[in-house]
Amino acid sequence: MNTRDFQVAVIRGDGIGIDVTEATLAVLAAAEARVGGFRLVAEDLDGGAAYYRETGRDMAPGAEAAAAGADAILLGAIGLPEVRHADGTEISPHLRLREDLQLYAGVRPVKAYPNAPQRLADPRAGEIDLVILRESTEGLFYSAAVHDRSPVETDAEVQDILRITRATTEKLHDFAFRLAGRRRARGGKGLVTCVDKANVFRSMAFFRKIFDERRAGFPDIDVSYNYVDAQALDLVRQPWAFGVLVMENMFGDILSDLGGGLVGGMGMAACAEIGDAHGLFQPAHGSAPDITGQDKANPLAAILSGALMLDYLGERADLEAPGEAAALIEQAVHQGFAENRLRPMEFGGDMGTRAVAREVVALLRP
Length: 366
Ligand code: ATP
Known about the structure:
This protein is an alpha/beta fold. Helices cover 41% and strands 17% of the residues. Strand 8 (191-196), helix 6 (202-215) and strand 9 (222-227) form a beta-alpha-beta unit.
């Protein structure tokens, strides 16, 4: 069989980012060995807050170019609360990568697993299987401090910008409709909900107008609309009713944490950031300094992000094997919870980062 190599730029970053990346690489290697037909060639790149403290740079020389040249980027977590720029903001080279590589589609699956904590009493919470699609290059993060774009910044007043462009929004909505189509083909819902605040902001009315324009190209996908405040309520009241939720950057930032909480905690919150030519995969959680170095972090968010990476690589290369490996990882996590073989400390269990990774690797053995 021909083996296809994929170059993966690995940025372990800070805090638990380092531990969960190690766990993810072990699981990816096991899935690769099981399926065959492809090989992940990892290149470690230095970057993050600890690196900044040592060197005054947030990424190593040449690291950004290497990341841009790879087939995919795998990132642990970046940021340490005690390491900051003069304006008080944290070290965030990943925000610059998002911008430079135009990773506009932030994909954040929210899926309930058996025996993982269910935060809602309603038994239908076991059916939660939605995706928050967070635009990741503009919206209110357009003027994130790292970009230095605040139009007014004095000691008396500071303004930030919420930017919505037609070019990015068209691609984002198309991505949402295509994703819903793929989910439906795999037995899920073919539903996209446009989450906005179109009743108050012109930028949001524009976001919804483009949603309506683009939906015409996907007649077999169902659509609905929700204002972001009502969506927050609905995510608690009936999260099982949703499929793909597409929204502006800041709304997605907030609601994806809510989503992570619904299915256990941040240790389950996987994330893919995808653009036209690049993909970056990282857990949605941060570096969690409170549990750093204690082998306590739940690596499943990072491991499931690794599965998203395999899916992406397979799709881009039009190769089935990586997608098969991704499905096997998801299945292993599902089976692990169902058989009570995965008991992360995050949920009061007895398994630290390494034990969870070992068990997922064991579940991947034929
Ligand atoms: P950021 O702003 O970068 O998202 P943050 O400091 O606001 O980071 P996180 O680092 O995501 O927040 O974590 C918040 C808390 O959630 C942590 O302090 C930790 O207790 C818990 N947590 C986050 N990720 C995990 C994980 N993988 N396993 C266990 N607990 C976690």
